[in-house]
Specification:
Largest sheet: 8 strands, mixed
Number of domains: 4
CATH superfamily of the largest domain: Alpha/Beta hydrolase fold, catalytic domain
Structural class: alpha+beta
Strand order of the largest sheet: 5-6-8-7-9-10-11-12
CATH topology of the largest domain: Rossmann fold
Low-confidence stretches: 1-119, 862-877, 943-950, 1124-1130, 1136-1147
Helix content: 25-40%
Shape: globular
Oligomer: single chain
Number of helices: 27
Mean pLDDT: 83
Length: 1147
C-alpha cells in the first residue's frame, strides 16, 4: 500500500472540507482516553526512536493532523517557516517570528524529546466571551424594557362604543373588462342599508370608500349605515337642510381581494388606475335613467367624495397623479389612519418612489403662485389619526402639514374631535360609534346637490370640516355669532338689578332659583382695553339655540334706540322681562349657540372624557370663549335663565385679562428632563389658565402631570379640574377630567417625518389649559416631570423599522472582522468571536463616528430653514423635506444617545438570532443523521474508503441548468425575491451539512468552512425580511387566481450573484485567502455596507439587498480566483473539487 504524503493539497485552506470517515467517532473516543493519562517513559522512548513527523499513518487513522499550509492570493501553496522557540505567543494561536510577522504557532522541539504537534484549538460556534455576553444581555434588557413600556405605560384609554348596522352589497357586474383591464381582479359594490334603502338605484351624492392594506370592502358598513340612518331619521325631515342641497349618500366600495398595498408599489398604482376608471363609471350611472332616480332639475354629478382608510388614503391621493385621472372628478378626500408623510415600510423601491412622486406632485401644486396653475386648488384633504392606540401605523405619519397648506387641509387626532375624545386603534377608527356619527354628519354638511361638484365651495368645505373636527378653541377657529343676524328681541327693566358690575364674575350654583325667567347682563369692555380682555363662560347645561325652550341661553346684545311706532316683528324670538314697566330697554341680541365648544364633563365622579356601552350618558360641558374685539360692537352679554323651577346646574362667566391667564415657560428641555417644572395657579385666578412650554415638541418623550387638591372652604366644587393638552400643528388635544394625575404624551416632532410647510417648529410647543373652580380661594400647585420608563415605550412605534437595517450594520462589521482574521491567520473565526472582537474596537469607533456625523449635520443645517413656502407671492422657496431621512431621523443633539442604544439592542438581537440559527442548523443536522442509513455488514476498511454524501451535489451541468431555469422564471413570471428565498433555503442546507462534518471531524478546514457558511447564512437571513413582503404579495396574487405575470421585480442581476455564491458553497469550496491588496476590497465593501445600513437603511431599506448582492458578486469572484479566468475555471466554480475526490491523493 502506497503511503501518502502528509503535505497533500487536500489540507489547503481553499480545499473542500474534510469528510469524516466511518471510524471517526471511534478515533475521537480513543484519542480522548489517551489524552487523559500522563505520558510514560516508554512513550518518550518511542517518540525518540521515531523520526520527527507531524503526520500520523493511515494505519491508525485517516485523519491528517498536520496544520494545513495556507494558500496565498495567487493560489500557490506556501510552506510554513520553521518554528522559533523564543517567539512570544498570541491569544489567537499566533507566534512572532524574527522579522516581526505573525504566523501559526507550531509545536516546539526540545533536544530531549519530540512532542507530536497538537491540533489547533477547536473554536465552538456556541462559545461567547464575557464582554459579548454582557453586551447582549444589556441589549436584550433594553429591548424588553421598551416592549414592556409600550404595553404597560403611557397608554391611552379605550373609549369607543360599539356600532351596529344591517348591511347589504350590490355588485356592479357591468363594470367589467370593457372598462378596465383590472376588472377580473377587483370588483365594485354599492352599499345598501337594509330596511332603509328600498332598491339599488342611485339618487344621492356619490361617495367612494377605499379600503387599506389587506382591507375588506365590507369595512364601509359602519359609516355607510350611520349615514343612511341619519338621513332617514333626521335630515329628510329637515326642510332647511333639504333646501340647502342635502341628499342621501350613495356609498360605493371596492373589493381589492385584500391586496397588500403597503409592501408593493405596483399594486398601489394598479389600485389607483382601477379607481379612476371606477369613478368614471360611477359618474356615468347618474346619467343612466335605468339606474338613477334623481330630480331632473339637479345638475349631473361631476365629482365624488373619497373616504380612504389606511393605505386607501394614499391610493386616493395617487389617483390624482395617474394618467387616467378625470380632471375635477375628486375634490374632497377624508382619510383615516393613513401614512401620508412617508411609507410605513421601505422594503420596496417602487413604493418609496411612488410616495416621492405623490408628495412632490402635491407640494409642487400648492406652491404655485396662481390658482389657475394649481391642479389641486379645489381639493381639500383632511387626515384623521387614531393616536397612541394605533400600533399598526405611527400616527406621526398621518401628518399632512408637509403636503398641503392650512387653507386646503389639516391633520386632526380623534382625541381632539368634540364628543369623541378618545384614541383609536387602526381598525376601531372604522367602527367607533361616536366617531362615525361625526364623519357622517360632516360629509352631509359639505354636500350641495345644486352644484355639479355635489359639494360646497372649497373655503366653505374647510370651514365645515374645522367646525366638526376641531375643538373650536384653535386660533384659526372662526366665530359665527358676531357675523350672524339678530335673532332675539330682549326687553329688560331699567331698574332691574340684573346688570353685573364691570369686572365682577357671574357665578350661578343652581338655575331657576328666582322662580321666573331672568337675564344677567354683563357689560362688555371697550375694544383696546388694557390687559387684552376676553370673555369666557362654562356651564354644565346645554345652551339653547334661538327659538328653543330649554334652561339656558347666552346672547350678545346691543341697545336699540327708542323710536315711536317702531315695529319689532322682524325678530323671530322675543323675550319681555320688563314686567310691564314703563322704564324698559330693548336689546337686539345674537345667539352664541353656534360658537359653543363642547368639553368633556369633569365632576368628582367622572374618570374619562367618554362613556362606554352600558354606562350612563354624560352630558358634556358647554364653553364659550371670545376676545373682546370679536364682540366689541355689542354692549352686553346676556345670560338668560329660562327655567322657572330650581334646577341643578352651574354657570361661571367672566371677563379676564389675557396676560393673567396665559403664560409661557421658557425652560430648556434638558432642565425639564433633569429637574422637572413646577408652577402654581394663584388663589385669585381666572377660571381658565393656560401654560405653554415651547420646548415640549418631541414625540419621543413622555411626562407625568400632577395637580394638587384645592380647598373650597367647606363648599363643594362647582366642577373638578379639567385639563387639556394640545398642539397647534397638527391638531392634537387630549382631555383629562377630574384631573389629579395625568400621563402626557404627544405626536409632535417625530423621527423621519418631514417638516411642515410653514417651518414654524420653534414657535410651536405643547400647551396646557386648566379649567378650575375660581370660587375656591386656594392656590393650585402643578408639577410636570419626565417619565423615562414611559418614554422607552415611545421608541417602539418610531424605531421598530430600524431592525430592518441596523442589525446589518452589526453583521457587516462582524463579517469584516472574520475576513480580516482569516486573511491574516488562516482561521475563519466563529460569528460570536468576531462579534467580541468588533465590540472591542470596530463597533465603538463606528458609533462614535456616526454620532459625530449626526451632530455635525445638525450644526451645519440652516437655522430653522430660512426660506419657507410662500403662497401666491411669487417668492422662490427652498425646503428640505428629506433632512430627517437619515440615521435616527432627527438632528436634535439630545437624542444622539439613541445611536449607541439602538446599536447595543441590535447586538443583543444579533446574538439571540445567531443562537437561533445555530439551534436550527444543529436540529436539522440531528434529523439528517437520524435518517442516514449505514448497513451493518459494511466493514471498517470499506467505511474508510467511503466518501460521505454530505457534499455530494448534482453534477455541474445539472446545477447550471437549474440555475438557468430559476433565472428564466425570474425574468418572466416570478419575482427575484422568490429566487432569493430559494437561495436562503439552499444555504441553510449547506450550513447544516458543513456543521455535521465540522462536528464529526474537528479540523481547521472544516471549522473554517462551517463558520464561513454560517456567517453568510446569517447575512442572508437579515436580508430576507426585506424581500419577504414582495414574495407575500406574489403568493397573494396566486391565491386570488390573478395569474397575470408579476409586473415588477424581474431583474435577474438582483439575485444572480447570490445564486452563484450559494451554488459555489454547495460544492464545499472554501473561499481562498486574499494575500494581496485585493483583501482590502472585501473589507471596504463590508465597511461600506455597515455605514450604508446605519445611515440610509431605515429610509431606503430595499437598497440593502442590492448592497448585499454586490458583496455576493465580489465573493463569487474571489471564489473563482483559485483558477484561471476561463470557461474551465467557471465550470470549476460550480464543480468544486469533485475531480480531486475522484483522483485521490498524489504521493
Amino acid at each position: 500500500m502506497r503511503r501518502h504524503s502528509s503535505g497533500s493539497s487536500e489540507d489547503d485552506d481553499a480545499s473542500p472540507v474534510e469528510a469524516p470517515h466511518a471510524n471517526s467517532s471511534r478515533f475521537s473516543a480513543k484519542d480522548s482516553r489517551s489524552s487523559a493519562h500522563p505520558t510514560t517513559k516508554l512513550d518518550h522512548n518511542r517518540n525518540a526512536d521515531r523520526p520527527p513527523s507531524f503526520s500520523i499513518s493511515r494505519r491508525s487513522s485517516s485523519i491528517n493532523w498536520r496544520l494545513p499550509e495556507s494558500r496565498n492570493g495567487n493560489g500557490t501553496v506556501e510552506k510554513r517557516p520553521s518554528p522559533e522557540r523564543t517567539s512570544p505567543s498570541s491569544p489567537l494561536g499566533l507566534i512572532m517570528t524574527a522579522n516581526g510577522e505573525l504566523r501559526t504557532k507550531e509545536v516546539e522541539k526540545t533536544p530531549e524529546t519530540v512532542i507530536p504537534a497538537r491540533r489547533p484549538p477547536w473554536r465552538s460556534p456556541w462559545a461567547i466571551t464575557f464582554s459579548a455576553l454582557v453586551a447582549a444581555i444589556v441589549g436584550i434588557g433594553f429591548l424588553v424594557a421598551v416592549l414592556h413600556s409600550s404595553v404597560t405605560r403611557q397608554l391611552d384609554p379605550k373609549g369607543c362604543r360599539m356600532s351596529y348596522m344591517r348591511p347589504s352589497y350590490a355588485k356592479l357586474n357591468e363594470f367589467d373588462t370593457e372598462h378596465t383591464r383590472l376588472a377580473s381582479k377587483y370588483s365594485l359594490y354599492l352599499y345598501r342599508e337594509q330596511d332603509i334603502d328600498r332598491d339599488t338605484k342611485v339618487r344621492g351624492v356619490p361617495v367612494l370608500f377605499i379600503p387599506g392594506n389587506a382591507g375588506s370592502y365590507k369595512q364601509v358598513r359602519p359609516i355607510a349605515a350611520e349615514a343612511a340612518n341619519y338621513f332617514h331619521n333626521v335630515l329628510q325631515h329637515d326642510e332647511s337642510a333639504m333646501n340647502a342641497g342635502t341628499r342621501n349618500l350613495d356609498f360605493f366600495t371596492v373589493d381589492f381581494n385584500e391586496d397588500i398595498t403597503a409592501f408593493h408599489g405596483q399594486t398601489l398604482l394598479d389600485q389607483a388606475e382601477y379607481l379612476n376608471e371606477a369613478v368614471r363609471y360611477i359618474l356615468s350611472l347618474y346619467l343612466d335613467p335605468r339606474v338613477a332616480d334623481r330630480d331632473p332639475d339637479l345638475p349631473d354629478p361631476t365629482s365624488v367624495i373619497v373616504l380612504g382608510h389606511s393605505m386607501g388614503g394614499i391610493v386616493a391621493r395617487t389617483m390624482l397623479i395617474m394618467p387616467n385621472f378625470q380632471s375635477h372628478s375628486i375634490n374632497t378626500i377624508i382619510t383615516m389612519s393613513a401614512p401620508h408623510a412617508r411609507p410605513p415600510v421601505s422594503f420596496d423601491s417602487q413604493s418609496v418612489q411612488t410616495y416621492k412622486d405623490i408628495n412632490d406632485y402635491w407640494r409642487r401644486a400648492y406652491s404655485q403662485q396662481w390658482a389657475n396653475d394649481n391642479p389641486l386648488w379645489h381639493v381639500t384633504l383632511v387626515s384623521i389619526a387614531g393616536g397612541g392606540l394605533d400600533t399598526v401605523v405611527p400616527s406621526d405619519y398621518a401628518s399632512v402639514e408637509s403636503l398641503v397648506p392650512d387653507t386646503h387641509g389639516f391633520t386632526v387626532f380623534t382625541s381632539t374631535i368634540p364628543n369623541v375624545w378618545t384614541s383609536m386603534d387602526h381598525q376601531a377608527i372604522l367602527w367607533c360609534d361616536q366617531f362615525r356619527k361625526v364623519v357622517a354628519q360632516a360629509i352631509y354638511d359639505v354636500v350641495d346637490v345644486h352644484r355639479a361638484t355635489q359639494t360646497k365651495p372649497r373655503a366653505e368645505r374647510m370651514r365645515v370640516f374645522k367646525k366638526w373636527f376641531l375643538t373650536g378653541m384653535e386660533t384659526i377657529a372662526e366665530k359665527a355669532a358676531p357675523r350672524s343676524e339678530p335673532t332675539t328681541l330682549l326687553t329688560v327693566d331699567d331698574n332691574s338689578d340684573s346688570i353685573i358690575a364691570e369686572g365682577e364674575r357671574l357665578v350661578l350654583r343652581n338655575l331657576g332659583t328666582a322662580g321666573t325667567v331672568r337675564a344677567h347682563l354683563m357689560p362688555i369692555p371697550p375694544s383696546g382695553s388694557p390687559g387684552m380682555k376676553r370673555f369666557t363662560l362654562l356651564t354644565d347645561t346645554k345652551l339653547d339655540k334661538p327659538g328653543e325652550h330649554g334652561k339656558l341661553e347666552v346672547l350678545f346684545c346691543s341697545v336699540i334706540p327708542s323710536q315711536p311706532s317702531q315695529s319689532w316683528a322682524g325678530f323671530p324670538s322675543q323675550m319681555d322681562l320688563s314686567k310691564g314697566s314703563t322704564g324698559s330697554t330693548r336689546l337686539a341680541c345674537r345667539s352664541a349657540a353656534p360658537d359653543v365648544v363642547s368639553l368633556p364633563a369633569s365632576t368628582s365622579s367622572t374618570q374619562f372624557p367618554f362613556y362606554l356601552n352600558g354606562e350612563k350618558e354624560i352630558t358634556p360641558f358647554s364653553y364659550l370663549e371670545y376676545g373682546v374685539d370679536d364682540i366689541a360692537e355689542h354692549q352686553f352679554v346676556a345670560v338668560v335663565e329660562k327655567t322657572t323651577a330650581p334646577t341643578p346646574g352651574f354657570v361661571v362667566a367672566e371677563f379676564s385679562d389675557y396676560t393673567q391667564s396665559h403664560r409661557t415657560r421658557h425652560i430648556s428641555l434638558r432642565s425639564l428632563l433633569t429637574f422637572g417644572m413646577k408652577f402654581h395657579l394663584p388663589a385669585e385666578r381666572p377660571m381658565v389658565s393656560e401654560v405653554k412650554v415651547p420646548s415640549l415638541q418631541s414625540s419621543l418623550l413622555a411626562y407625568n402631570l400632577r395637580i394638587s387638591h384645592q380647598d373650597c372652604n367647606g363648599d363643594s366644587e362647582l366642577f373638578a379640574p379639567l385639563v387639556r393638552q394640545y398642539l397647534a400643528e397638527p391638531y392634537e388635544s387630549k382631555y383629562f377630567v377630574n384631573a389629579r394625575e395625568a400621563t402626557v404624551s404627544l405626536h409632535g416632532v417625530a423621527p423621519y417625518v418631514p417638516p411642515p410647510l410653514t417651518g414654524k417648529l420653534d414657535e410651536n410647543g405643547l400647551s396646557f389649559q386648566f379649567w378650575t373652580d375660581p370660587t375656591c380661594s386656594s392656590s393650585i400647585h402643578i408639577e410636570l416631570t419626565a417619565d423615562f420608563m414611559g418614554s422607552l415605550g415611545k421608541l417602539y412605534m418610531r424605531y421598530r423599522t430600524v431592525f430592518a437595517a441596523f442589525p446589518l450594520f452589526i453583521v457587516a462589521l462582524v463579517l469584516r472582522k472574520q475576513f480580516r482574521v482569516y486573511d491574516t491567520t488562516g482561521m475563519f473565526i466563529p460569528f460570536l468571536e468576531g462579534l467580541d472582537l468588533c465590540l472591542r474596537q470596530s463597533i465603538p469607533l463606528m458609533l462614535a463616528s456616526l454620532t459625530l456625523l449626526t451632530l455635525s449635520t445638525g450644526i451645519m443645517a440652516p437655522a430653522s430653514n430660512a426660506s419657507f413656502w410662500h403662497w401666491r407671492n411669487g417668492t422662490s422657496s427652498i425646503m428640505d423635506f428629506q433632512h430627517n431621512d437619515l440615521l435616527i431621523g432627527t438632528e436634535d443633539p439630545l437624542f444622539l444617545f439613541l445611536i449607541p442604544l439602538i446599536a447595543i439592542v441590535c447586538v443583543g438581537v444579533c446574538t439571540v438570532f445567531n443562537y437561533m440559527a445555530l439551534t436550527l442548523t444543529h436540529l436539522l443536522g440531528v434529523l439528517a443523521s437520524l435518517v442516514t442509513f449505514h448497513p451493518g455488514w459494511i466493514g471498517n476498511e470499506d467505511r474508510k474508503k467511503t466518501t460521505p454524501a454530505a457534499f455530494f451535489s448534482p453534477s455541474p451541468r445539472r446545477r447550471m441548468i437549474t440555475t438557468a431555469v430559476l433565472l428564466l422564471l425570474v425574468t418572466t413570471m416570478v419575482p427575484y425575491q422568490f429566487a432569493y428565498l430559494v437561495a436562503c433555503l439552499v444555504q441553510l442546507m449547506t450550513t447544516v451539512r458543513a456543521q455535521r462534518i465540522a462536528s464529526e471531524l474537528r479540523s481547521t478546514a472544516n471549522s473554517n468552512f462551517y463558520n464561513y457558511t454560517h456567517s453568510i447564512f446569517i447575512l442572508m437571513l437579515w436580508i430576507l425580511p426585506i424581500n419577504l413582503p414582495t414574495f407575500v404579495v406574489w403568493v397573494h396574487n396566486l391565491a386570488v387566481h390573478w395569474l397575470t405575470p408579476f409586473s415588477s421585480h424581474h431583474n435577474v442581476l438582483s439575485v444572480m450573484p447570490f445564486i452563484v455564491l450559494v451554488e459555489t458553497l454547495t460544492t464545499g469550496k472554501m473561499i481562498p485567502r486574499m494575500g494581496s491588496r485585493l483583501k482590502h476590497v472585501t473589507s471596504l465593501l463590508l465597511f461600506g455596507m455597515a455605514v450604508y445600513a446605519a445611515v440610509y437603511g431605515v429610509t431606503y431599506a430595499y437598497t440593502l439587498h442590492y448592497v448585499a448582492n454586490f458583496l455576493a458578486f465580489w465573493l463569487a469572484i474571489v471564489h473563482s480566483t483559485s483558477d484561471s479566468w476561463s470557461l474551465a475555471g467557471l465550470t470549476h466554480l460550480y464543480s468544486g473539487d469533485a475531480g480531486i475526490r475522484k483522483r485521490g491523493k498524489e504521493p
